[in-house]
Amino acid sequence: MYIVMGVTPNVYGLFADLTGGDAHWESLGKIGSAETVTAISSSDGNTVFVGTDKGNICQLTAPYTSPCVNFVVQPQVGSINGLFEVSASSAFAATASGYVLKLAGQTWKAVGGGLPYDHPFISVDGDPNLDSVFAANTNQVFVTHDQGSTWLSASHGLPTVAQSTELHYVHEPNGIEFMYLASYGWSMFSADLTPGCVPLGGDCSVGVCCPFSFGSPTECTPSGFGTGRTCALYKPPSTCNGRPVPIGIPCKAQWHCCGEDDGWVCGLCR
Q1: Which of 52, 43, 70, 44 is nearest to 11 (CA)?
Q2: Comparing 64-78, 142-156, 239-253, which segment has the lowest mean pLDDT?
């Protein structure tokens, strides 16, 4: 099975042969007739998690001959806006009530770890290889590297009000991995997810810092504790050879303080 989708209460899967030929849709099941599918996810095609506009989440299991089995959802929430199935026993959900839910056995429970609850969460997606999960509400993006116990901001480089509409993880054929964020009125943003990189706050003496920030890079800086070094957000220099950086010409990550014929400038060194 290549794709899963929902149409009102019905769930379908796109099947094809090993060469990609004979592509066709087959019914996998349906949810309650009074509900509408609002989110759907499957990690391997053997199990499918389905979220509804009534705040319910159920599971369909191959060979898809049984009804969609409902989970317990605590607390009760509004519409399920996004689902990300890591495996049959690990998954996350974004809800219109401002919660991110995590599957714990047969119950979906709200996670904390620094997440706000004041805006609806729109989407959730992640990179199973990096054990990283991203969640976007209408204003910000957050990331967890420990299965939802703690969350960090991943909004750097985004507008103050991002108007997020969808997160989508992509592993390209050349091995490069990206997290894309679609927005309402702000176009599309991307964050490069480097495999094996060190997350923000991690020890970068053992690897490369993860460039998780949308449009805003990270750097390896002295941690302030002995000789250790820590991954942190890049902070552009405010001076160049002791002189303030001109207003309107901020030092970007790839820029340096350079000596020029007419003095020191912040820019691309020749």
Answers
A1: 52
A2: 239-253
